[in-house]
Design a protein that fits this description.
Chain lengths: 236, 236
């Protein structure tokens, strides 16, 4: 088998791997957007669909694992190529978990919606959550775009943006707790919203994790001691 | 090469892989315990040591990756054996990140300690953090013990215990925010403690992630839809 053929076969394999990761990322972004839509309307049927669709993300992760293992076993890639295959395998595991957080949000929709029966009491702070979800979802897309483009600087920007999402979470947490205190009848619903916010915060943390893997795959070194600009930066 | 020899070589490889994961886990537990000790005394020199020691965890992760790739390429393991090698690779990535959280806690020690100068003002809620740290650290050890023992039921128990850690975090968060309001001079120190608590909460989340990987490696199926007993269970 001529070397040229092997190289082409590897390129085709890695292209397929990238395609699957990108597809997983798209599904995870959709899951986040739809879970938030289901929450805002509220639309329990849409929420049920988000939960069912999560199986597709799990299935692609399993495929990524199978293909990555096959590439390692058959093509014996070296250096940057091997780093990329291993990164794909690890990134798929993280994106699968991001999908789980979207599913967890969807699971809370019926509880939040049902408790609204009769009382017609609208929980105002719910309006803060879609912006936080967009921020988290953007981080996921940017981290996976950085992987597709092998762009370590784009990966670094994702890591840096995590501090802003953390601040957003802390602010929403305080707003929701204050709202609970002032509207004790809504406590159980607002508690669900607290978990929604926490799931979004964790999605951002996992996007950061992906970005760090992308940086390492592209450069062979860890992102500057994972300082994220040092702890001073995220206390504002 | 007789089959028997290949099987023995694989067993030796996988034994080495397990040993490295267990060693990483031990270092991560030490890092958590020492970071909390450095915070409680406070002891900035110990904190600096925790930060420096994190490199050892990173180095073992890189070794795990190399060995896992070599096992896949040379031994072409199948089914449960392959699942275990891939799980080791993914678990090492998560434990490496757990080490990062301990390092992040250590980084905050000087800021919290320095602000104490002169005023001799002790932040009482700091006394809640060691218990939370022990809970998080226990989850890490139990998840890695479950991996070593291929014990899916032990893995499930780790996942279930995450809800208690989340509750602990929420309670500490509220306590710290209340303390800030009542002691405005301590705001910057208490803000650092909030991030310490969040890092511990994330360590528990990552231990849960490891436990889910252990469950899958041992059984070939995902843990019951990752329900964790359903969202009702973690709202109490």
């Amino acid at each position: 088998m001529p070397l040229d053929h092997t190289v082409k076969a590897f390129d085709a394999d890695i292209g397929q791997l990238r395609g699957m990761i990108s597809q997983m990322g798209g599904l995870a972004e959709d899951a986040i957007a739809q879970a938030m839509q289901a929450l805002a309307r509220p639309d329990p049927a849409l929420a049920a669909r988000v939960r069912a669709d999560d199986k597709a993300i799990d299935a692609i992760e399993a495929e990524v694992e199978r293909l990555a293992v096959r590439i390692i076993a058959l093509r014996a890639p070296m250096a940057v190529d091997l780093r990329e295959v291993v990164a794909a395998l690890k990134i798929a595991a993280v994106v699968e978990r991001i999908g789980d957080y979207a599913k967890n949000i969807a699971k809370r929709v019926p509880m939040i919606a049902n408790a609204n029966d009769g009382s017609d009491h609208r929980i105002e702070p719910i309006s803060l959550l879609p912006s936080m979800a967009r921020m988290a979802s953007d981080m996921v897309r940017q981290a996976l775009d950085a992987f597709a483009a092998r762009d370590p600087e784009a990966a670094r920007r994702v890591v840096e943006s995590d501090a802003a999402l953390d601040d957003f979470y802390d602010s929403i947490f305080r707003t929701l707790v204050t709202y609970m205190v002032e509207n004790p009848r809504t406590i159980s619903q607002v508690a669900h919203l607290l978990f929604v916010a926490k799931n979004l915060e964790r999605i951002g943390d996992h996007a950061t994790n992906v970005a760090e893997m992308v940086y390492f795959a592209a450069t062979g070194t860890q992102m500057a001691d994972r300082d994220r600009g040092g702890p001073d930066k995220d206390i504002r």
